[in-house]
Amino acid sequence: MTDAIPIIETRGLVKRYDDELAVAGVDLVVGAGEIFGLVGPNGAGKTTTMRILATLLTPTAGEALICGIPIAEDPIEVRRRIGYMPDFYGVYDDLRVWEYLDFFARCYRVPEARRSAMIGELLEIVGLVEKRDAYVEALSRGMRQRLCLAHTLVHDPQLLILDEPASGLDPRARVEMREILRELRGMGKTILVSSHILPELGELCTSVGIIDRGRLLRSGSLAEIERSLRATALLRIELLAGTDAVNAAIEWLGTNPRVGSVLRTTDPSVAPARLEVGFDGDSAAQATLLATMIAAGHRVSGFTQATTGLEELFLQVTGQADEEAA
Amino acid sequence: MTAPPMATRGAPFDAVGEFGASVATILSKELRGRFRGRRAFVVLTIYLGVLALIAYGAYVTTAPNARIAAEQTLDPNTGVVVGANLANASASIGQAIFALLSVFQLLLVAFIAPAFTAGAISLEREKQTLDLLVTTPMRPGAIVIGKLIAALAFVFLMILAAIPVSALVLMYGGATIDDILRQQLILFVTAIGFGVIGVFYSALVRRTQAATVLTYSTMLLLVIGTLLVWRFWTEVATNSPDNRFGEIRRAPEQVLWLNPAVAMIEVVANTELSYGDFTGVMQSIRGDAFSFGAGSTGVPLPGGAIAVPDCPPNARCAGIPQPLPPQLIAPTVAPSLISAHFLGRFVISFVLLSAALTVAAMLLVVPAGMRGLVRRRRALATARGEGDAVLTDIEP
Predict the structure, then answer these.
(1) Which region, left, alpha or beta, applies to residue A13 given φ > 0 means left and ψ of -120 to 50 means alpha?
(2) In B, residues 195-234, which contact A (CB 8 Å cutoff)?
(3) Chain B: nearest CA to A127, how far in angstroms?
(4) Range list of H helices, chain A
(5) What is the pTM of this model?
(6) What's the sign of the alpha-carbon dihedral B57, B59, B61, B62?
(7) Between chains, do A32 and B1 touch, taking CB under 8 Å as contact?
(8) What are B85-97's pLDDT values in tens digits?
(9) What ipTM was estimated for this complex?
(10) First-to-last C-alpha distance (Å) of chain A
(11) Which of A162, A222, B76, B205 is deepest in the core (most CB within 10 A)?
(12) What is B224-238 written as a DSSP string?
């Protein structure tokens, strides 16, 4: 079965620029038909990882395979199977829209007989049918972005590698871009898409990888990541108490086996004092903790679990990484 | 979902075909942009207009002299005007036109070819389109060749379109079709050479501006710099203290092999009816090697006659009738005059330089991160080979 072969597989991918470690051992597996979102702050290593997969960079160490083909061994064959859209790119101003797509179709040696019909279909997918004869120069930013996306599809690749496809677009163009990606998923394409704006990916991706400082901190479906984090939920506890009482409460929390870290986020003199508590337990366990805490005489004025939107997840994951590093 | 079949490694024949198709793809895209609109048409018209003006200028300045020369042809024995040598007069006009056109075309090509190519790769980098191009399955070499041909296509068109202007010469005489072919050969080789130098720098440095500066510097170094080096070297060698007899010690001529101007001067010198400026330059460069008659200090003339340099034939030496042999007055250039010493050496060395720089440019277009690929692939193969060896060792 070909399904068994992941579309993307990297093993211990490392890329070092002089002193800087851009990618520090990324193990990534993306199966067929997935939309995999690579999320991370600027400079996290998203673009470097994608450029390695797009055959533009060789890794310093590790291995990357596309459809089971090692990139280092046969980049040309890999290029036939991927469509790559860089984060920054230019277009040939002096060509018309259809000429632009025709040019890339020829680059991929698409037979002449198929090119014309295919260009029509692609323009339909990205909504540029009426711009067929316009000069690329005259297109708006959003249209250029969609044209670039169309160019990645001319050879009907199995995998699309899209580096920040929605960057610099206005909200409406973003929505359009998302719709197109959804349509492509419907066509059975595997898509690796990156963004530093998380909500953008949340509803679109089947799985997400959170990357920071060159390391893939978590990867899996959103639900999986959430579940794995829930084990160490972040509780925000507010105490209406003086310094001594707060210290006593911190000490008391420390004796609870389920409590991991306790961090005071406000100045000692400020009341109410806020604590961030890493807690290993579900809602029921949290309720028990609150009850015993009040019973023990601590004046709790606030008790919430930090909400886990994608944004929050991300901060949590990268925060944990910081702690581990420290 | 079925994966497409693994590509089979094609025969070398397929690879060549694929390379050609890639070159054609790049070429058609480039030409589409380049020849679109009025720009190409306007540039070509201006170029031909300038050349026609130059040809006319050469005619206007030489025609009166030629007429006088024709009228004042003297009987060498009596010093009496015996009749006009109109053929020779006409040839001197043709030769002047040929000389000017050759030099100006060479200059124009030397300045235009780099302008078209110095941005070939760096503009793609600046406009960030190169990544899109190199992630296609096309070979980087095909991208370089396609861009080079496209950039040179317009220069070639200019050179070819100017042939009718050069062909004016054939009406007057003074240069033959062979001379025009030699002139064209130098122009084409020069266009290719400077075009490749432009593409090379374009692939080497990131900015078009820097590539342009480097290309023009190299062009000037080859055309003017090598002549200066040669002159300086000769001067120093000649004036060195151990040169007790004060003989002229020439710098090695290899210094000038990559100089298209020297090759062109040689071509023009071949057409000179007498000891002229171009012949003078060639003689000072080649020394005795260029004195046509064996062991002679004079300038050979058609029919094997020797003219004394200080009063060449057709020149009017202060009005004093000179007793010269009658066979000096001959309108055509004899084959014995033709020298292709620098022509051949220039063409070969320039073509070799172009080939080397083209290969270098191809290697530079490979994405920066992929340059180690060949080495890596080899390392992988070796590792695998060793792995196999270990396995077989373990097996009893």
Answers:
(1) beta
(2) none
(3) 21
(4) 46-53, 75-81, 97-107, 112-126, 141-151, 171-186, 199-202, 222-230, 243-255, 283-295, 310-325
(5) 0.72
(6) positive
(7) yes
(8) 666 778 888 889 9
(9) 0.71
(10) 45
(11) A162
(12) IIHHHHHHHHHHHHH
